[in-house]
Structure formats: C-alpha cells, structure tokens
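Readers of this paper often ask what the protein records in our data store actually look like. Such a record has a labelled line for the sequence and another for the backbone structure tokens. Nothing more is needed to write down the fold, since each code stands for a local backbone conformation. The remainder of this section carries one protein's record, kept here as part of the documentation.
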Amino acid sequence: MKHLCLAALLTTAALPLGATAAHATAPAAALSAQRDGVEVTAGALKMRLTALADGLVRVRIARDGAYPEDASWAVLPEQRKARAKVTPTADGFTTASLRVRIGAGGAITFETLDGKIISADAAPVAIDGKSFTLRKTLPITEHFYGLGDKTGGLDRRGKEFVDWNTDAFGFTSADDPIYKSIPFFLSTGAPGGSYGILLDNTYRTWFDFGHRDADTLTFGGPDGPIDYYFVAGPSLADVTRRYADLTGHAPLAPKWALGYQQSRYSYMSADEIREIARHLRADRVPTDVIWMDIDYQDRNRPFTTNPKTFPDLPKLAADMKAQGIKLVAITDLHVAKVDTGYAPYTSGKRGDEFVKNPDGTDYVAPVWPGASVFPDFTQAKSRAWWGTLYKGFLDDGIAGFWNDMNEPAIFNTPTKTMPLDTVHRIASDDFAPRTGDHREIHNVYGMQNTRATYDGLLKLRPDERPFVMTRASYAGGQRYAVTWTGDNSATWDHLKLSVQQIINLGLSGFAYSAADVSGFAGGPSPDLLTRWFEIGAFTPVFRDHSATGTPRVEPWVDGPDHLAIRRRFVEERYRLMPYFYALADQNSRLGDPIMRPVFYDYPSAASMGCNQSMAFTLGKALLIAPPPSPESPQTYDVCLPAGGWYDYWTGLRAGTPEAATSGPIQSATQAVPTEHAKSERVLETPRLDRLPVFVRAGTILPRQPLVQSTAQTPSGPLMLDIYPGGDCSGTLYEDDGTTLGYQRGAFFRQTVRCATTATGITVTFDSKEGSLAPWWKQIAVTVHGWQGPGRVTQNGASLNAESDVSAQTLRFTIPTPGKAARVTIEKN
C-alpha cells in the first residue's frame, strides 16, 4: 500500500472559494493512498473516500475509529462493491473526470480535472456525541432539487427540511415533513457542473440549503452512519442516471398502469364499482383501473372482503376484466389483533412476525381495524410471510395493490407513529443480525413494506410485473413501488404544488408518481377539476381520487361541457400511449424521469426569464406549459428553449400567426419579443379548454388510434408525427404489456431518425431490437412544417402522399419495416 503524508498544514490561501479560515487551524490531514481512493486521518477524524465509478465517490467517516457498517437499505450491494481506477495525488486522487482534494482537517473538495469546483466543504465534519453536521460552500448560482415530494416549491434553495415519514393529512404547500424520506438532493449552477448527494442514513436527518446561513449548505443527523455518496455530473441528467444506477432502476410497469385510473375513498360495494365502470364506458372515457379503498374490507381488516357488499370478488374482477378494467386493492400493513378467524394475525403470531415493545411483547396500537399489530419488515422471513398473504387476492383476479398508512401511521398518539423505543429485528441483506429501535427504522419501514409486497407478488406470479403503490418510502424505494403525494387538498395551490412534487420525485428516482387528481381533501370547483384533468393527463400516473364525505369527482359530475374537455385530454393520453411507453422503457434502462423539469434536457431554460413554476416536459419531446397562476385569467409568457418548437394541437410552428387560429383546439399563442435570442417566447391567454403543449423541432412522435383501455389492440396504423429539426429522432417500443418477457428479449424497439436535405427530408428506420412483432402493420407518417406537394419513395418505389397547405403537412403510409429502411421525401 502506498502512503502519502502532507508535511505541513494547508494555508488559508490554498482553500477553495468560500471555505472558512477554520480550515487553516485544523489539524493536518495524513493521507494513505488506496487502490480505489484514499483514507484520511486528521486528528481524531478518520475518513475513507472510495471511487465506486468515475464521478461517483463514497465518503465514510468513522466515529471513535470505527467505520459504519457496510450495509444499506438504499444502495445496491453490487454498487457498493464496484470500484473505479484512481490516480493518487499529493492531496487526494483523480478519476477519469474528477479530482478529489483533501484539505486541512479532512475538508473535501470535488473538482473537474481543469480545476472548476463542483462542491467544497466549508468546514470539516462536526461530530457532537452521536449527532453530526456536514457543511459545504454555497455559491450564489446554485439551486437544489430532489428530496422526493417535499413541499415548498420546486427549488430547495433558501429552505430547510427534515426527513421523518409523517401521516400529513391536510398538509399545506409549506408543511414539512410529510410522507417520504429520500435523503438525496441534486444541484445545478455550480462552477463545475451539476452534482448530487445521497446521505445514506435512515434516522431523522435534516437539510439546510442556505436558510440559516445563505453561504452554507448544511446537512446531518442525530445518530447513525456518516455515510454519503457524491454523484458528479456534469449534467443534471448524468446525476439522475448515476443515482438510478446507485439505488436501482424502477422496473418497467405494466402498460395498464399508464392508463387512466378511477378511485375514491371509497366505492362502497361491488354494485357501485360496476356502476362506475358502466358510466365510464357509456361516456366513452378511456379507463384502465378502478381502485378499491378500505371499505371493501370486512371491518377494515386487511386481506378480507365485506361479505355483504363484496360477496363475490372473483366475479367482480372477471366482470371488470371483460370491460378492459383492472382492480387495484388497498392492503394496509396494520394487522388486526384478532385471536380467532383472522388468518393474517394467527399465522403472523405463530411465526413471530410482529414488531416488539422493549419488553419483548408485540407492539399493539389502534389504526383502522382497532387494535393492530405490525409486521417486522426488517426481517427477511417476515417479508416473505407477508408476501404469502396476497395469494387469495391474486387468485381472485386483483391486478395490483396499494400499501397505504405505512409511515407507519398510528391513531390516538401525538406523534402519529410508533414510540421511538419500539424494537425492530434486523435480519436482512448484508446487515449484521441485530435489533434497532424505531428512530433508526422509521423512515425505511414503509419501503420495506413495499419490498415485501413486491417480492411476494413476484414469487406468487413469477412472470407477471407486480404493481404496488406506496405512500411512504426511502431512497431506493422505486425498486418496489410507484408512489403518490398523499392526502393533498382540492385547491389551486395544491394543483401547482403537485406538479413540483412529481418533478422532484422523478429526480429522486420515482419516475412513476402521481398526485390525487381533484385533490383528496375538500371538493374542487368544476374549473379546478377540469384543469387538474388536463395536467394529470401528462403526468406519469393519472389517478382521480377523493376522500369520503367530499363531493364526487368522477369525470361526468359537472355536466357535459366539462366532461367533454376532461374526456378529450384522457383520450389524448391514450393516443400518446406509444410515447409514454417508450419513456417508461427508457426509464427502466437509463433512469431518466418520465416527467421532467424543462432544464433537465434544456439547461439554458434555467436562466430564461419566464415564470416556469408550472412548466414541465414529458420526456424530451413535449413541453407542457400550464398557467403559472392556474386560477388566474392573466396572460403569461412561455419560454421555449432554443431549437424551435411546434404547437402540439395545431402542428404548426409555435409563434406563427397560423398557430393562433388553426387546429382542433384553437391556440391563443402569438410571438412577442424576447431578450433570449436563441430561445422563443410566446404569450398565452388562459382558457379552460386549452392546455399549451409544444413539440420540440427534431421530434419523431409515435401515437396510436384511440382505444378505451390498454387491453384493447388499436385498430389501424401506428402514427408517426415528424417535426423536422436538429437531432431528429424518436423511439418505438412495444412488448406484451404485462409479463417479464421483455427481460428475455420479447420486445420491439426501433429508433427512427430524420434529416433535412437540399431537396427535402430522409426518414431512416434503424434495425429493430428484440423478437416481438408489434401490433401495427402499417405506419401513417405526417411530416409537419411542409410546404406544398411532395414525392415519397421507399426502396425506389413511389408512395402516395397527400399535402395539406393550411396544416402545412405531408401525409403518407408505409408498411411496417421488417428491417432497416429508408424513406425519401422530396419537394415536387
């Protein structure tokens, strides 16, 4: 082993910008070079930095000379074991793209190889008993995102947050904490590019993004491991993808999970569910899922059904399946303490599966069923037992499951959760077998609940994709469940908040996320519900859900005019299903969110002058721009990043006079001057029947004929809308929608590209990947921005083409290419 020791203290002049003079009086750091990083000793401080990959460094700090256990609920074992090649330096090491420097007292600076600071410690770690604080410099240009569905707006800058999973019914847009603890944040605007930090500590950790001290980013915890992962960019997308590699990619959801979903707390009988389904089908509102909340159960006991109101669950599920509708059932984790006639309790008691009091007795507390016990999900054997409980519901035909109340929520207690001295037995993964109290396990308890559900479903149906929805989770929980933002409210403020929460969830690993359309608590006005439907149609998971005792919020409740608008947006989601599904495939492979901040793919958008607090992109191709004050009729600007954009509804170039008057939904868009020469600014006047949506020039957008559910095969050709521009491409993806066959190659994936030539456009279909034959036999192509007639040839053969002068399109249909193909489009 090679050893390097600093001979003298670093001087203040050598400190990174923003570091404090305290560095200069800190003890000298002795460095011991390792094959994969460096070990540091500075006085009583002992620290190990390990390069797991280029741009990914793990920092572990010892207390009393002992490093924390090399185990994690969040980070995958293979990632913790991975190593990158490093080159030792006098003050640290380098990887292929990253320089790590150690200063006085063990302060760390992460830099690019050309010396630009990505992140620098403002002071060495401070340890006070069991608690610890990490401080980093905070340049004025930095902004922060992530931490899951925290409130407070999209940008975390100037705010502070606590991670403690909380049943937060009635939360406001400023309340914290709420349901999830995802101790991962991302930064943009640092001189050296974007970065992220995962503090892998399940205790009640906290984060201050310049709230108490505008020049300092601080975070820490009251106990637990000092163990964090530094994820370098340089782009925000690089950070997001590396975080997905680190904590696990969300599995590809069943296709039906991307369809419209109808819910309420609760539909009170099988007959009511049948009536809801009948009404949805009669009104031609495409639908894939109806949810069953707790009132389908017998006395609120999980894994039971009310024999009077739901007398034949298999028949109900079969009836719904015949209409193309899946049933998702809630299965809360509190098990009723009933000594006879209730199998979940008797089998769990027999196997000693429940969480304990300090004296060794089962912890018992009131929740929906009354006195309840709670599975000890940190035990692998208890998770396996929990998974067996789903067999009956799967046999009955239930398609997916909803794990709610898993913060865990407890009634009749000021803390709303278990006492901190409740005992959990840890016997799982690479943790050493031991017990831990609730201070340590609280934030990971809901995640392990979903893990038990997901793994149990997969064991019972080894070739079917599990669908699990959770309210509480921790970093890495995306491996097991989709999520939603919890019990929101029917207000305009919560509509805006929901967009920001879903974006930050996507940046935190949870690509599949939702907010209750309509708002759960209270009742929305007709206009609010309609606007929420419009925006919800472009979010990853689209569920209309409301609380018991509130006004009904099904699509038809406010009359035919509102129904028509709501239905039109649900229909548009189904037409876009090939695009949604290709994004889901991309997420499963690469980790890119489905719903993104505009600056994810277009970094310059972060500095554009428009109010972008409601704007987002769906993938890279679609930019959705709701009013930033959604309840206001005030006109507003939409800033479109450089490169050119089209109005989705008209197909015309955004900002052109024709786009303001053409198409099935009239646009109020007009060009206005902008100080951003390479971007474009358009002015929008809010209208209830319009949601501004723009398509990036250079997009090849797949769509399909309208269906009433994803169980229905579209009739007719796949539609490809080509919007010429730079970097012109699109992806076609298809599989069977429900099984794991795609992991064995039973899928279809094809990249389509276009290029502008002196005489027109060429469209190239790459060789297909996978063994599956897609449902489409033909492809109907529409080229936008086309002037006049055109001539289309494929392999030398001429194809019929129709031009539309007013729509500025050229349309033609080709057989689905069985292999790589090229289509040439020329001006006549």
Q: What stands out?
A: The longest strand covers residues 117-128. The two ends are 73 Å apart (CA to CA).
